[in-house]
Amino acid sequence: MVDVTANLAGPSGPKPRKRFSRRNIFIYGTLGLIAMYYALPLYVMVVTSLKGMPEIRLGNVFAPPVEITFEPWVKAWAQACTGLNCEGLSRGFWNSVRILIPSVALSIAIASVNGYALANWRFKGSELFFTILIVGAFIPYQVMIYPIVIILREIGLYGSLTGLVLVHSIFGMPILTLLFRNYFASVPEELFKAARVDGAGFWGIYLKIMVPMSLPIFVVAMILQVTGIWNDFLFGVVYTRPDNYPMTVQLNNIVNSVQGVKEYNVNMAATILTGLVPLTIYFVSGKLFVRGIAAGAVKG
Amino acid sequence: MSDGARPIRLFRNLNAKIAAIPMILTALVVFVGGSLWTVVYSFTGSKLLPKKLFKWDDLFAIPVPEWIAKDGELNFEIPIGIVSRSWVGLKQYDRLWDAPRWVISVENLAIYGILSLIFSFVIGFMLAALLDQKIRFENTFRTILLYPFALSFIVTGLVWQWILNPEFGIQSIVRGWGYVGFTFDPLYNPNTVIFGILIAGLWQGTGLIMCLMLAGLRGIDEDIWKAARIDGIPMWKTYLFIVIPMMRPVFITTLVIIASGIVRVYDLVVAQTGGGPGIASEVPAKYVYDYMFQNQNLGQGFAASTMMLLAVAVVIVPWAYLEFGGKRRG
Predict the structure, then answer these.
(1) In chain A, what's the furthest Cα-to-Cα distance?
(2) Which of A131, A287, B110, B196 is the most core-located residue (most Cβ within 10 A)?
(3) How far apart are CA A262 and CA A72, in angstroms?
């Protein structure tokens, strides 16, 4: 089937781009260097966490481990100390899980219903409240911390995990509501109208039409919330007791505690452990993560 | 409509109104109410006082969390916070601006903010432009450049604290190459510590800016590039005089995002330096937290957070006016 004459007739089609043109070398070279710079801290974390302390004292942060040991990981997870408490990061991990699951569920439930009401069931003043919500998202948290302490105390939730869940739901609301509102607004109106003609009400349309149709945006919202809540530090430190501290707070207390000899390998193992959940989500979700932050950041 | 329809109007669309209650409460009670409350009480002498001293007549009590004690020992007593109704006028603000720690905090934030803005924009745009050259492995590169954004500021701060450690980090490596006099210890030098924090902050945040810029670049019509090429305009000129002006909306959104993030800088400093050496890397958000929850002085915390609110308002109000006010007219 090969047409030999065509080859003899000389080259045809557009001139092929040289693979090693000066432009390509520049672009890939620059990007490669930059990518190395960005990847370096992750490498340093992993490498340090696999070394023993004697090896760390002799070498530098970038040297690969000569003798790989997983002991720092075990120690970080089960024995690292914050003050008198030596249970390791595991407690913080489980606290974070116990904070994360209800916070994500509650904030998404509230925000999706809010977004749905704003997109399809506008009422007088709804846009005004929404505008306040969005502008309010830019108020520094420090301004609202104390009034919330008072509110939580008044309803008896101050210091508890429930209180923190509530706080996360409140501060997740602006961005999630925006996300859901914009998504629901893009659902064809005919569907909505047809459902109304068929006698479906507010909740019926939401549960039977909107939710099944918008699973991708629920996933995006979940990614956004899981990383955001897992990485939170300020709310954890303000609104919970030490035995309820989330992982980030505990990590900081372990690493930056003044007592004792610094065990850098344990510290780095603890740091990776804390970063593992959002990193896993990031690497697994790929494009959806990008879509999440783009949707959250740029409207629409 | 007749007057008779009025009571019904409130109940029309009732489900939507019920569904919106959390949003309405958040917007009015927490965002508006909470902010106003803080601003109002920044004009009072609110304090944390020992239990014996407070009088029920003109005070009411609030528990306050104690963070870890300085020796690293955990404790959680609930001291009694006193929100006082005794007006002291602008005294808290006078004290605030007289406090060296606050002045240093503001200076640090200004340096960090301006440099972070410039570098975020420049680096973010450059990276986006590089990725926009129809290259292979675009997804791989983007994944690597963006992963720091998935990490918390605590993790970011701790990693860079380790890399910038003079004994084991970059300094020791360069010295190992034979440059024995080389010094690079930003986190241990009061004059340069804020740049050490900037390095970490940029590493964490530029990936996001790149993504926003890339989305902006992709939104520009391909024909414009073609037209520019036909006219023989060099690429850098096309970027500078055609593409960048067209990306104005993206730039404005990015600016708002970066700016509101800058004012909040807190976790990063706590993890990386704890405000040190001395008070050289303090930032306003940390000042607020420490005064509210550790230093027995609520009023100072309120005044400091009001100043933060003011700083944000300077950026946000014009933007909100353009964004929301403009739409309603159109």
Answers:
(1) 89
(2) B196
(3) 12
**Which of B21, B132, B168 best tests the A interface by mutation, with the highest count of A CBs <10 A?**
B168
Are B6 and B116 found together in one domain? no
Predicted complex ipTM exceeds 0.90: no
Using the 8-state DSSP alphabet, how is residue B296 labeled?
S
Q: Enumerate residues 86 to 125 of chain A having a beta carbon within 8 A of any beta carbon in chain B.
A: 110, 113-114, 116-118, 121-123
One domain for residues B218 and B254:
yes
- Rounded Cα distance between A5 and A2, Å, is 9
How many domains are there within chain A? 2
Spatial distance between the Cα atoms of A246 and A232, rounded to a whole number of angstroms: 8
Q: Residues A43, A167: one domain?
A: no
Instruction: State which residues form the domain around A57.
Output: 18-69
Q: Are residues A61 and A171 in the same domain?
A: no
Considering the domain architecture, whether residues B205 and B256 belong to the same structural domain is answered as: yes
Q: Which amino acid is at A63?
A: A
User: How close does chain B come to A166, measured CA to CA in Å?
Assistant: 11
pLDDT digits (tens, 9 = 90+) for A209-224: 899 988 888 998 998 8
Q: Which domain holds residue B230?
A: 95-329
Same domain, B60 and B138: no
Q: How far is CA B44 from the centre of its chain?
A: 27
Question: Which of A69, A101, A133 is the C-terminal boundary of a domain?
Answer: A69
Task: Kindly report the pTM of this predicted structure.
Answer: 0.85
Say which of B135, B162, B292 has its CB closest to residue A48. B162
Kindly tell me the burial class for residue B193, based on how many C-beta atoms sit within 10 Å of its own C-beta (0-12, 13-18, 19 or more).
buried
Q: What is the pLDDT of residues A79-113, one digit of tens each?
A: 887 766 778 888 899 999 999 999 999 999 999 99
Residues B37 and B48 grouped into a single domain: no
Cα A269 to Cα B194: distance, rounded to the nearest angstrom: 26
A237 at B interface, C-beta within 8 A: yes
Instruction: Examine the domain organization and report whether A145 and A39 are in the same domain.
Output: no
Q: A-contacting residues of B 268-307, CB under 8 Å? A: 270-271, 274, 284-285, 288-289, 292-293, 298, 301-302, 304-306
